[in-house]
Structures are given as structure tokens and as C-alpha cells.
Predict the 3D structure of the following.
Amino acid sequence: MNQLVTAAARRHIVEIEKRIAQQWALVEQLITTDNDASEATRTLRTLQQTLALTREHLRFLLREDGDNATPSAISAEQSIGPI
């Protein structure tokens, strides 16, 4: 597999992780200030699902390429707490 494709997938994972952290902070802020966090929580869940799918896609690309290594971008599950 083209290394450019796997590098792009890794960058996407990092970007999604950053967005999850930002969204989680927003959810916490809304909850702390007694505001409705339902839409922000739904967005957070969508981002989490997107991250899981993107990680799975990268695993597929690496298997297809015969790379058995587990890259840190895949195995480093971000702990964001219960939703």
C-alpha cells in the first residue's frame, strides 16, 4: 500500500482525536453550566464512531500491505469517559 495513504489515515486519526477532545470539553462545559448537552453529546458519539471506523480502515490498509505492526495511532485508545 502506498505509504502516503497510510500516512494520511494516521493524520486523520490524530485530527479526529483532537476534535473529540474539543467536543468532550464542550459537553463538560454545557453540563457544568446546566445547559442542554444532548446535541453536543450526539456529535461526540458520531466523532467517536468516526474514529473507530478510521482506525479500522488503517488496520485494513496495513494488513493489505502486510504490515503486522500495531501503530500507536491505532492502539492508543483515547479515554474520554462515559457518555
In short: The chain has one domain: 3-66. The CA atoms of residues 59 and 74 lie 7 Å apart. The longest helix spans residues 3-32.
